[in-house]
Amino acid sequence: MHLPPPRPHRDDVRIAAVGLLGGLALWGIGLGMNTGRLFDGAWLLVPLVLMSALELLRRTRPQFAVVAGTLVLVADQFTQGSLATVLMFTDLMYAGALYGTPAMARRLPVSTGLVTVAATLGFLAWWREPEAVLVGVATGLVSFGPAATGVLVRNHRDRAAEERLRAEQTALLAEMDRAQAVTAERARMARELHDMVANHLSAIAIHSTAALSIDEPATTRTALETIRENSVEGLAEMRRLIGILRDDSGDTEPAAAPTLDGLRALVEQSRANGLDVALTLTGATAGLPAPVELAAYRIVQESLTNALKHASPGRVTVAVERRGDEHVEVRVSSPYGDRDGPRAPGSGAGLVGMRERTALLGGAFGAGPESLPDGGKIWRVRAVLPLENPAPEGESA
Q1: Which residues 6+ apart lie within 8 Å of 42 measured at CB?
Q2: How far is residue 28's CA from residue 231's CA, in Å, rounded to a whole number?
Q3: What is residue 343's predicted lDDT score, i.e. its pLDDT?
Q4: SS3 labels along 35-58
């Protein structure tokens, strides 16, 4: 498909019109640049009209305009000459360096500089007069000067475009970082909210169901006491979390983050909620990085919550083992299978949260049913949390 040639830019049309009208005005008052030339009189209008026509191509076809403009300028030297023709030629040289290809922009100042030097030396050798230097100066003013100026302006525009692009990319990266930070913070707060409150709410749901389904005053009273205890503790946890959200001090971690020293109290609370739990701590728990302690505590807490909601009757074992300065391993096992009695609904967010906590520290996590030699099944949760350079929660390891 044949495409029509591009239309001249409106500024180029204005430049061509001004140059043509200015040349006609100079010719009208009889002002010429040369005397005693081969073609006198109105012949100077031919190069003037041709040069003004080339001005229409200064942006769309700059290379053709420069080459043709050079030939027109040479032809103008055989007439009386017009200052407007010379000025329009300098504009073509400027536009060639500014709007031409990168190769043209590199070569044009070099070629015009060589022409200027050659003209200066040639006329010095021919005339053997100091005035010959003026010819070289004039050649440089109408060729090398505009070309060099065009290159400078082009380089400035290119740098400005690069800076704008760099600023846009920086703004885009900053927005992406902000969005990722917001997403990470929302995920962290979701994990905290789930782990801090789910255990209490699960106990409330199970005991309230038991109180409604078993018509025994003693059982109902025990269930209500457990409900009240978990309600008070859950409300305290919610208030602490709300305090964290409202804190504008820049501290993104809880003021009193749980540690492994609190596992015994956590196990006692689970026993009060009806779980048969055995806890084993191996190795020193002092001096552990805070992110590791928090992750280990939350994994045990969520595992006990899941056991309270889903496990069959039987013992739940919790083992937390520190292996030197390498890692902390958390293992929680609970009976797996159908259970009688009330259940609390589950959403699967707990497993997602435990997996996220482990991944943020660069560790390994696994959870699922396992078969026992006696034919039974258990649900086992295992997390390995490295101790070397643990990433703070909310950041990728």
Answers
A1: 27
A2: 102
A3: 52
A4: CCCCCCHHHHHHHHHHHHHHHCCC
Give per-residue pLDDT as tens, 153-181.
Answer: 999 999 999 999 898 888 888 888 888 87
Structural domains counted in the chain: 2
Helix residue spans in 77-213 (DSSP H):
83-99, 102-127, 132-139, 145-213
Output the pLDDT for position 181. Answer: 79
- In a domain, residue 228? The reply is no
Q: What is each CA distance from 141 to 99, 135, 149, in whole angstroms?
A: 20, 10, 11
Q: How far apart are CA 230 and CA 133, in angstroms?
A: 101
Residue 53 lies in a domain: yes
What Cα–Cα distance (Å) separates residue 95 from each residue in 41, 87, 151?
A: 30, 12, 9
| CA–CA separation, 192 and 107 (whole Å) | 66
Output the domain CATH number for residue 356: 3.30.565.10
Q: How confident is the model at residue 210, as a pLDDT?
A: 63
Say what the pLDDT of residue 305 is: 81
164 and 265 together in one domain: no
Tokens of 27: 């010719």
Distance CA 17, CA 26 (A): 14
Last residue of a domain, one of 147, 170, 193: 170
Copy the structure tokens of residue 32: 């010429």
Domain range holding 335?
258-397
Q: Which pTM was predicted?
A: 0.53
Checking if the pLDDT of 365 tops 90, the result is yes
What would the pLDDT profile of 196-207 be if each residue is shown by its tens digit? 666 666 667 666
Q: 380 and 276, same structural domain?
A: yes
In this structure, the answer to whether residues 160 and 302 fall within a common structural domain is: no
Whether residue 297 contacts residue 258, with contact meaning beta carbons closer than 8 Å, is answered with yes
Distance CA 285, CA 51 (A): 89
Which residues, at least 6 apart from 270, have a Cβ–Cβ distance to it below 8 Å? 199, 277, 304, 307, 308, 316
Within 10 Å of residue 100's Cβ, how many Cβ atoms?
23
Residue 147 inside a domain? The answer is yes
Inside any domain, residue 329: yes
What does the mean pLDDT of the chain come to?
A: 81
What backbone phi and psi angles, to 5 degrees, belong to 79?
-115, -175
Measured CA distances, 189 to 238, 332, 352, 357, 359 (Å): 12, 24, 13, 12, 16
pLDDT tens digits, residue range 24-33? 998 888 877 7
